[in-house]
Amino acid sequence: MGIFSIFKKQDKETLDKGLQKTKESVFSKLTRAIAGKSTIDDDVLDNLEQILVEGDVGVDTTLKIIDRIQERVSKDKYLGTAELNRLLKEEIASLLKENENGAESVGFDFPKGDIPHVILVVGVNGVGKTTTIGKLAYNFKKAGKKVVLGAADTFRAAAIDQLKIWAERTQTEIVCQEMGSDPASVAFDTLKSAIAKNADVVIIDTAGRLHNKIGLMNELGKIRKVMQKLLPEAPQEVLLVLDASTGQNAIEQAKQFTAATEVNALALTKLDGTAKGGVVIGISDMFKIPVKYIGLGEKAEDLQIFNREAFVETLFEHKEENNK
């Protein structure tokens, strides 16, 4: 059963289906690029570099992967298609492991603590931020956790209304105020309510507009400061939501938000609708921030805790079957 012995069959099927476009459009090109080659030579490495860059892995990360493979080939004299696939899998998995950065991994079914786990969610409008919050609430609730949502994106009435719909759909408590209210006030009230009701998880939505960096920094800093009056550890998780289908634009958004606040976890949405799944690798490596969640479809169950081994294994799975 290998790595998938710890992976539910349904999760495995969702991951495989969600990454299908990336596998077909990007990683399957590897087989054609090295067809008829008996050694991993400069031509093979040049083709591999082009494929990874086109797959939105990113230039810097791609060059790092190529250098590592070149070093191993030079040292150990690996030959053949199957060996290159294995090397590439190992190096990508190694990069993702390096970029876990020691972050605390809180899955949906984590042991109950004395204080709630607070997740501050940031990201621009349109990336699936509020939907991701709804899916998080669903999955935490399914795992038996008591969840409280905070509608601190008071810039748009639609954001508050959308979060209310998710709260109703998941039967989750929500704290909200009128449009235009102080976001920090909403966050404070949300956490106060969560502590009083002994909640396990608090998820705070924030405004999704990319205004100037100083304004963004001040707003998020104020939210953090008022929550820490109630809970010095809050927020334990600052989750940046990015749309994987936007490729390099997602990287630019990550630059903006990581400069404005201390992001320590990433959620990559819409992986099922794009061939740019390689952006997961590039963003993780570039910003040294672990990917925590991936969105693989519209259903609430399609949001998964990111499993780097299963992710890499699935990307290459069909190629190895074809090479047997």
Describe this structure as you would to a colleague:
By secondary structure, the protein is of the alpha/beta class. The protein is 52% helix and 12% strand. The chain has an 8-stranded mixed β-sheet with strand order 3-2-4-1-5-6-7-8, sandwiched between helices. Strand 7 and strand 8 form a beta hairpin. The longest helix has 18 residues. The protein is elongated and about 65 Å long. The N terminus and C terminus are likely disordered.
Keywords:
single chain, 324 residues, alpha/beta, 8-stranded mixed beta sheet, 13 helices, 8 strands, 12% strand, elongated, disordered N terminus, disordered C terminus
Task: Break the fold down into its secondary structure elements and pairings.
Layout: H1 9-18, H2 20-27, H3 29-33, H4 42-54, H5 59-76, H6 81-98, E1 117-122, H7 129-142, E2 147-151, H8 157-170, E3 173-175, H9 183-196, E4 201-205, H10 213-230, E5 237-243, H11 248-260, E6 265-269, H12 279-287, E7 291-295, E8 303-305, H13 308-322
Parallel strand pairs: 1-4, 1-5, 2-3, 2-4, 5-6, 6-7
Antiparallel strand pairs: 7-8
Helix pairs in contact: 2-13, 4-5, 5-6, 5-12, 6-13, 7-8, 9-10, 10-11, 11-12
Task: Describe this structure in a few short sentences.
With 324 residues, this protein is an alpha/beta fold.
Kindly provide the radius of gyration, computed on alpha-carbon positions and rounded to a whole number of angstroms. Answer: 21 Å
- Poorly predicted runs: 1-6, 319-324
Net shape = elongated
Helix content: 40-55%
Percentage of residues in strands: 5-15%
Structural class: alpha/beta
Strand numbers in spatial order across the main sheet: 3-2-4-1-5-6-7-8
Average pLDDT value? 87
Instruction: Count every beta strand, where a strand is a DSSP E run of 2 or more residues.
Output: 8
N-to-C SSE string, H for helix and E for strand: HHHHHHEHEHEHEHEHEHEEH
Distance between the termini: 18 Å
Count of helices?
13
Largest sheet: 8 strands, mixed
